[in-house]
Amino acid sequence: MPERIKLRNLKKLGSLNLGVSQFEIIGSVVKIVGLSLEVKGVIAPVGSRCQIQSGNGSSVFADIVGFRDGLSILQALGGVDGIEPNSEVVVVSRNKSLSFSEALVGCVIDPMGNVLIGNDVERDISIDIDRQPISISDRGVINTRFETGVKVIDMLLPLGFGQRIGLFAGTGVGKSVMMGMITRFSDADIVIVGLIGERGREVSEFAQETLSEEARKKTIIVAAPADYSPILRMQGAEVATAIAEHYRDKGLNVLLLMDSVTRYAQAQREVALSAGEAPATKGYPASVFAKLPFLIERAGAAKCGSITAIYTVLIEGDDTNDPIGDAARGVLDGHIVLSRKRAESGIYPAVDVPKSISRLSKDLLSDSDFKKIRSITALYSILDENADMISLGMIDRGKNLLLDKAMGAADRITDLVRQDINVSYTIKNSDDMRDNLIDDLNLVF
């Protein structure tokens, strides 16, 4: 039973709407471990937001993440300094929504909707943060190519409006640079970028240096840096998705870039473990593998409008088979792998073509163009397979015609994917370059 019921007039927290009934159930803090709190007397569902009155007069906000032994388990949004035994806890929200304005385009906001970079504006729209994915019957067909402006993607890994794809990369292989290129060059109506768990310096650099002035005019960045609590890091990904959904509902073609879905999963792991959930695969509780597809399924094509989503997946030690990578691959419509070996060779974007795939290529291309992509991919594959033998001069010419052609045009094959970060290519430019190489090598497809 609740300890007491109190009449209270609540205010807003940041730009999150927290209005609930005036009659609020009051509980009290029993225990704190790290950012996790155990509270008695609070009756509210998982996901509800609570306000805790600290001993120094300030307020701490926390979300209910579970229940144990008759107590509610809360995860603080920030620090817990000042909270004392029996500190007062009140539920301030059961359903979170974001106060939003389309005039925030060009700004960087945090998961609460507060402006970090740019000028704040009056909010006139309420956006539900925890929306359900669009139903199967409301999904649109993906049959129109999406232009990224990055030629290796457009010519060999074509994407469609509404496709969800993973960008698998280790550290230092050009992931952020590629994200910046796609943000600047793509033909999306609006771009929503979620920077989850990144260093604060990288958020500032991406917003003020990586993006051009023209790109900023159609971009909103939601930032939840590494020093934010796990609850806020998770909320950052959800807010970015919710804003993208808002524009899709208006019939626009939205590009959602999220860096990274791995740190979203790590934040969920922290929350789940603090709530007492048992670890499973490599320390990740089962709830992580339920939350991840739920988030990704919110993107995609609707009957009118689309969210084309690119989720970065961080791979430790360049191992693409870690649990989060496996889980993401299972629900995404393809993956682009960035190669450390190519990056170290000075080939940027460092896309490993044979290990990458767009699962919708056949739906987006004619049979002829699809076969052309397979022919070019075969060139990269055979060069990779024989790289050591080639470097040692141990290849006998004339025994493998495809290998002979690939070796003779190795520089052209490399240059086919190499691209200056300030130069964009149309789909037609990219396809013509691919076709010219096929014609010159007289490849059979």
CATH class of the largest domain: Alpha Beta
* Number of extended strands: 24
Distinct helical segment count? 15
Backbone CA Rg? 25 Å
Structural class by SSE content: alpha+beta
Query: Major β-sheet, in short?
Result: 10 strands, mixed
CATH topology of the largest domain: Rossmann fold
Averaging pLDDT over every residue, what do you get?
90
Helical content band: 25-40%
Oligomer: single chain
| Count of distinct structural domains | 3
Strand fraction:
25-35%
Weakly predicted, low-confidence segments:
1-12, 18-22
- The coarse overall form would be elongated
Protein name: protein-secreting ATPase
GO biological process, one term: protein secretion by the type III secretion system
GO cellular component, one term: type III protein secretion system complex
GO molecular function: ATP binding; ATP hydrolysis activity; protein-exporting ATPase activity; proton-transporting ATP synthase activity, rotational mechanism
